Amino acid sequence: MSHLKALIVHSDAQLRGHLRELLDPVKEVLVLGEAVTSFEAMGLLAYVPYDVLFLGMELPHGVSGMDLARHLSGRPPAVVFLAESEEHAFEAFELGAVDYLLRPLTATRFARTIERLRALAPIPPTVAPAMPPGRPARATSEETVQIALAEEEEDLLVNALRQAWDPAQVR
Question: pLDDT digits over 92-102, tens only?
């Protein structure tokens, strides 16, 4: 099954965790990353082809979620805004937002967002590709791990991820 690869960008760790819990049973959406700032998000977006971005409005370090959305306007990924007020809803939809969720998130409203995202999900092929003889099927269980890293270690990890995701690399 094809998944929509998601990135959660919000300064509130508790909200990111709650959103991850809400998305966990949604088989069409796979959370591949989290970021606290627009700068972290841009770093991840440069190397991972995310399909959907859950984006908070107020982010630290002077670049808001709306600023990031303006920068990405017209290019993937699809954006679902997470906001505390309706203040920027019109502009969000003018930029092509898939949805604009108000906090606190409710299950009913979140279900409507998921329906909108399902319309974006790639249609799976009707016939599964045959496995080459002698190759065992891979396990499909996936999990995101959060690791506390020092800045130097974080730089090493980001560089390793860049190399792993670089399609120009010969393997």
Answer: 999 999 999 99
